[in-house]
Design goal:
The complex is a heterodimer of chains A (about 575) and B (about 325).
Chain A (H helix, E strand, L loop, with lengths): L38 H30 L9 H36 L8 H23 L13 H4 L2 H32 L11 H32 L13 H34 L7 H15 L14 H29 L8 H23 L2 H7 L3 H31 L5 H28 L13 H31 L44 H4 L5 H12 L1
Chain B lengths: L9 H21 L12 H32 L17 H29 L5 H15 L3 H5 L1 H6 L3 E3 L12 E8 L2 E6 L4 E3 L2 E4 L3 E8 L4 E5 L4 E5 L5 E6 L4 E7 L11 E7 L1 H14 L4 H7 L2 H12 L3 H9 L2
Parallel strand pairs in B: 1-9, 2-6, 5-11
Antiparallel strand pairs in B: 2-3, 3-4, 6-9, 7-8, 7-10, 10-11
Helix pairs in contact in B: 1-2, 2-3, 9-10
């Protein structure tokens, strides 16, 4: 901690409201609906937009579960059912988890955590966000024309022959959000590399930021490949080309390679930022340093690298040669190692802590519990011999909902509760939060656990009509989905009520050590009225307990302390 | 990390828990009843692999979840305690330990999994090309790309689960061409001149399915046989198996193929060998243009029996219905 001096070029106290600052003192409500380059506004824009789509896609899931309560297709038209299953997946991935985790929390937290005033390219950032509403319009148009119906994977030839107009707009949607994702990834990498305050060593970078580095690398490498595949598909549909038309000499399996080269890493895009969130929440609320900082940081990068070479495990039953099945099987299984390292490290962080089971930690522990299950079922799917049986069954549906709902969505909920005081300046209601957690946890397990049995016993996925022998377990899943539907209510009430009328939040209600907690809640427009000081590592709990006891240390006092330490 | 018990040493407790977890996991791995009946020679191989993975997974699941729950209770925050937990940043040996153990497990699993896959017949792709490509020449000849490039055709391997290493290059006992279309499977027996909507095979014989698709992707899945292979337009694939038990079992389409994908189901009928001969002769006659002979072979009641039983009608009702003009 060598540079405790104030940086010279910035004013020491509250910045003057006008002058070189080209913005008002405080954002009004309508600023959140306009083009705005403040990363915090953009973060909130991402989160709220994404949450809207989460509700829409969740509603689709409820309709599908209503259909599946009985073996006969008696609730929805079969084409509508396929539209719902396609768009449920598409929206949950591209409009909810990815934009909320990367766009939302990434944007809101990364500059604050590294002590920057904003992202490196604020305008690019705003453009990246505004591509999302445009994509939303595209998917709306797609819906108006009946929607894409070939699954979120949109394998040709089915995607070439089913509802061309809906499919074309679906492709435009994905290319638009993909572009947004690439712009965002570039911005994160440059921001973390260039704008981190110099006092902060690389091994003091919060683990959320390390996770964002891995996420952004992965998005940069893989997203263009999906775009290529989709553009070729678009040409096949609209301009008479035959890249994926077997009757014209095209190859349908090539599409699957292009698609999964992105879409498997997309799974890690959805979980790596959440892993970052986990490290922050678990360490803060168990009041203990993160166990194995380096192992957690490097394992994100390891997942990122290995994650790029596992995509063929989605194609073990497709037209893939045996050597590929072997290579990609081993690579897939190896991903379990860095993931396991993370899980063990979090458990070890909890061990010996002073665990405060507030709502964010409840969701984090719930995530841990369910991710372990989803990870283990994932390992079984990595072996081609077993995958021949389980592929494209409800076993897979159960597996990926454990990692994506039990994992990513739980992590997002945890993050929302954890940073709610910082973002809104108000505390959330703890009781409602716990009710929300209880309902979500029960609902998740009731909905997705029986799906494993269904798949193993012989029920394929993506069907509206199924064999009557599977009815009982399907009913159970449907009841679970109803609980999940209800679980959203305490959350909504809590968020809306607390945002408007909740108890005002102090700067640092959790006594956390990352830099975002040094500024006001909500933070000032350029983040820090006084430049932040790295006076402890991000997870240095338990070193000097006395200094944390006074809640509201002013920066001057902290400076004085640091000054003394240096003498 | 040692537990501070005054009477019983923690190592003893840990040992007991370890033995209990191991015992339960081994038992559950063998007695999970999660998979359906085993009908093919490959099914026991797959199930053994699954059971071992389930056994390991159960043990890891119990250990991790147990530790989480124990930790949450033992290290819960007590009211009034504002201090932090102990300052522990890591433990290198522990981290090496929990990196090495999973690495070891997944590598062993990976090798074992590949071995099973090999035993199932996943690796023999070379011999099959030489042996069978003449059949697909006809199908692929309609594709312009293949006409212009015969090399492509000759080199094209046939993906799927083929002959097991034991069977080697021996030709199969029976070959059936399987064609997937929205929303049905058509089974053609080139050597017998039979076409059927259900797959009939003799028990205990080496069957090879040559799978293609007419319109979109389908996946040919026999849950009781633990076998699945996509039917791909323009790219032949195969499944080779020996059915080990007679009876009627489902055929399921496992790849989204359109609005009525869920309805794309059929049946595989495994016959005793002599029964299969009867089936062949009946169907050869039935599909013969000489209709009189075909009708004479079975009465209407016999012919409809499968369907009437499914509809829940008994023999007398059917007879009565048939007598009506």
């Amino acid at each position: 901690m060598t540079s405790a001096q104030l940086p010279l070029e910035s004013p020491p106290a509250t910045p003057p409201p006008s002058g070189h600052h080209n913005h008002p003192e405080k954002w009004e409500w309508y600023h959140y609906f306009l083009y705005n380059v403040d990363h915090k506004v953009i973060g909130i824009q991402y989160l709220v937009t994404a949450f809207f789509f989460y509700l829409v896609a969740g509603l689709m899931a409820l309709f599908m579960r209503a259909e599946l309560a009985t073996p006969n297709p008696d609730v929805l038209d079969p084409n509508v059912y396929n539209t719902l299953l396609t768009n449920h997946g598409t929206m949950m991935i591209f409009f909810w988890v990815v934009p909320a985790a990367i766009g939302g929390f990434g944007n809101y937290l990364v500059p604050l955590m590294i002590g920057a005033k904003d992202m490196a390219f604020p305008n690019l950032n705003a453009i990246a966000f505004w591509l999302n509403p445009i994509a939303g319009i595209f998917i709306g148009i797609s819906f108006y024309f009946g929607g894409a119906q070939a699954g979120w994977t949109s394998y040709p030839p089915l995607s070439l022959v089913t509802n061309n107009l809906g499919q074309s707009f679906w492709i435009l949607t994905l290319i638009t959000v993909g572009t947004s994702s690439i712009l965002g990834a570039l911005n994160f990498l440059v921001t973390i590399y260039k704008l981190k305050i110099p006092d902060m060593r690389w091994d003091e970078l919060p683990l959320f930021c390390w996770a964002m580095v891995a996420t952004s690398l992965l998005a940069l490498f893989s997203t263009p490949v999906l775009a290529i595949g989709l553009i070729l598909l678009f040409f096949d549909i609209n301009f008479g080309t035959g890249f994926f038309r077997p009757e014209m000499g095209g190859d349908v399996v090539v599409y699957q390679h292009l698609f999964w080269f992105y879409s498997h890493p997309a799974v890690y895009l959805m979980i790596l930022p959440i892993f970052g969130v986990m490290s922050e929440i678990v360490s803060t609320h168990s009041r203990k340093p993160i166990f194995g900082y380096k192992a957690i940081a490097y394992s994100s990068l390891a997942i990122c690298l290995v994650g790029l070479v596992v995509w063929v495990h989605h194609m073990f039953t497709s037209g893939t040669p045996a050597w590929m099945r072997m290579f990609f099987s081993i690579a897939t299984l190896i991903v379990a190692v860095p993931t396991g390292v993370k899980v063990f490290s979090w458990v070890a962080t909890l061990w010996g802590g002073k665990i405060r089971l507030v709502t964010p930690l409840l969701f984090a522990v719930g995530l841990l519990a369910m991710f372990v299950f989803g990870g283990l079922s994932g390992v079984t799917l990595g072996t081609p011999a077993f995958d021949l049986h389980a592929h494209d069954t409800y076993y897979v549906v159960g597996h990926f909902h454990y990692v994506l709902f039990g994992g990513s969505v739980f992590g997002l909920y945890g993050a929302i509760y954890h940073w709610f005081p910082k973002i809104t300046g108000h505390m959330y209601n703890e009781t409602l939060g716990r009710i929300h957690f209880g309902l979500t946890f029960i609902g998740t397990n009731l909905t997705f656990l029986p799906m494993h049995n269904l798949g193993l016993a012989g029920m394929p996925r993506r069907v509206a009509l199924y064999d009557p022998q599977f009815e009982d377990l399907n009913k159970l899943c449907t009841y679970g989905s109803m609980i999940l539907g209800v679980s959203i209510l305490p959350f909504l009430i809590n968020m809306i009520w607390s945002w408007g009328w909740g108890e005002p939040a102090p700067r640092n209600p959790w006594r956390a050590l990352t830099l975002e907690w040094q500024t006001t809640s909500p933070p000032a427009i350029e983040n820090f009225d006084e430049d932040p000081i790295v006076w402890a590592g991000p997870y240095d709990y338990g070193i000097d307990t006395q200094s944390f006891e006074e809640e509201e240390l002013s920066v001057d006092e902290m400076l004085a302390e640091v000054g003394q330490e240096m003498k | 990390m040692a537990k501070k018990k005054e009477t019983i040493p923690s190592s003893l407790l840990t040992l007991t828990i370890g033995i209990a977890v191991a015992a339960f996991s081994v038992w559950y791995g063998q007695n999970n009843h999660l998979l359906p009946e085993q009908l093919s020679s490959q099914a026991p191989l797959v199930d053994d692999l699954f059971n071992i993975m389930l056994c390991i997974a159960t043990a890891l699941f119990l250990l991790v979840e147990g530790t989480i729950i124990y930790t949450l209770i033992r290290f819960r925050h007590r009211p009034g305690d504002e201090t932090d937990g102990e300052y522990i940043e890591g433990n290198f040996s522990l981290e090496v330990f929990w990196t090495a153990i999973p690495t070891f497990i997944v590598i062993v699993l990976g090798i074992y999994g590949v071995q099973v896959y090999n035993q199932m017949g996943g690796f023999d792709t070379v011999g099959q090309v030489a042996h069978h490509h003449h059949q697909h020449q006809v199908q692929l000849a309609s594709l312009p790309a293949d006409e212009s490039n015969p090399m492509l055709l000759a080199e094209r391997p046939e993906y799927g689960v083929g002959a097991t290493p034991v069977e080697g290059l021996t030709p199969p006992d029976l070959e059936v061409d399987v064609l997937g279309m929205q929303y049905a499977w058509i089974f053609t027996y080139p050597s017998l001149g039979i076409t059927s909507g259900e797959l009939h095979v003799p028990m205990g014989q080496d069957i090879k399915l040559n799978i293609t698709a007419q319109d979109v992707l389908h996946a040919f899945w026999l849950p009781q046989f633990r076998l699945k292979q996509d039917a791909i337009p323009g790219q032949p694939t195969q499944l080779r198996f020996v059915a080990t038990k007679s009876g009627h079992y489902p055929i399921v389409c496992a790849e989204l193929c359109g609005a009525y994908h869920g309805g794309m189901r059929s049946e595989i009928v495994v016959h005793e060998p002599d029964e299969f001969v009867t089936w062949i002769s009946e169907n050869q006659v039935a599909q013969n243009p000489d209709l009189e002979q075909a009708v004479a072979l079975r009465t209407d009641g016999d012919r409809l029996q499968d369907y009437t039983t499914q509809m829940g009608l008994d023999a007398t009702t059917v007879q009565a219905a048939l007598k009506q003009p």
